[in-house]
Amino acid sequence: MDFSDSFRIVNLAVGIIMILGGISQFFNLGFQSIIIGAYVLVFGLATALLEFQIPPQVSRYASFMFSFLGRGVFYVFVGSILLNHGVLRIIAGSVIGLVGLAYVALEFVPSVEPPANMREADAGWGAEQV
Q: How many CA atoms lie within 13 A of 105 on its CB side?
């Protein structure tokens, strides 16, 4: 079954939720909140932009983004750092974390293939591109 468009929409939605969650971190005005907000904002921008274009550096240095398991663990991580101070951040972190758990589960379902943009760096685990 081909769910490529569905996965692209979900990844884009998660990127937008990350961006909004990162922006909402700036409203606490604490040093830690600003740093977390900046990281989540950058992670959200990178996640959303990966749906449109894949720079060669990403496939080399962030190859975990090209498998359900790697992307799922990444989403769970970002979702967990958003879980603090405020209902909207808790909702955003929960949604991102649940999508991450779903992606981790999809890694073990052989009938579901990752979309084409998640297979770009599929040269093998740790393979060098020369």
A: 6
Structure tokens given for 45: 């921008």
Q: How does residue 120 score in pLDDT terms, banded at 50, 70 and 90?
A: low
pLDDT score of 13 more than 90: yes
Confidence of residue 1 (pLDDT cuts 50, 70, 90): low
Shortest CA distance to 79 belongs to which of 112, 106, 109, 102?
102
Please enumerate, as own/partner, the contacts of 73-81 that have beta carbons within 8 Å and a separation of 24 or more: 73/100, 73/104, 74/43, 74/100, 75/14, 75/99, 75/100, 75/103, 76/100, 76/101, 76/104, 78/18, 78/40, 78/43, 78/44, 81/36, 81/39, 81/40
